[in-house]
Amino acid sequence: MAFSFSDDDIDRIASVLGVPARRDGATIRFELRHEESKRWIKLELLTQLQGAPEIAETLPTNLISVSSPSSFLQLQGCTGFIASRELGEVIFFVKRDGTTSGLVVEREAACSLYANVEDALLSANFLELPPEMVMSSVALSMTETLFDNLG
Questions:
Q1: Minimal CB count within 10 Å: which of 17, 41, 60, 149?
Q2: Quick check: 148 pLDDT over 60?
Q3: Which one-letter DSSP state was computed for residue 147?
């Protein structure tokens, strides 16, 4: 069964990020600002996509986009998320073909994207990994148990 965002999921995301969800049809928007750093980002969850009938069935659902004055990040086909009040962040995930990609959105209007991280790295000993791979492995390691429960 495909993942879909429930109203409770949207409320939890809004609570963790500390901003209201603004709904416009299949689009849900969150606008985050961090005054001290002058950062702002806009997070959009698009839960249904519309396209030409011949490709509509193949379009991914749950398109997650983050835009800021200097960047645009997108995660297509979100299969789950973790919202942590303690960390002040929401991590949106795609798990596919032995890899995990994740878009981390922080309450302080920051975000990070980790793409195509091999699943074996998520349970690796982080002390043995090259320094360049530690951040993505640590950030996405929480998905292991999440997706085990979905399978």
A1: 149
A2: no
A3: H
Of 122, 85, 134, 132, nearest in space to 106 by CA: 85
- The residue assigned the tokens 């750093």 is 37
Strands (E), the chain: 22-24, 27-34, 39-46, 63-68, 71-75, 80-84, 89-96, 99-106, 110-118
pLDDT number for residue 149: 40
CA atoms 109, 105, 9, 23: torsion sign: positive
Task: Please give the backbone phi and psi of residue 16, each rounded to the nearest 5 degrees, phi first.
Answer: -65, -40
For residue range 73-82, what is the model confidence (pLDDT) as tens digits? 999 999 999 9
For residue 144, what pLDDT is reported?
63
- Reduce the DSSP state of residue 28 to 3 states and report it: strand
Query: How far is it, in rounded angstroms, from Cα 149 to Cα 82?
Result: 13
CB atoms within 10 A of CB 41: 21
Average pLDDT, the chain: 84
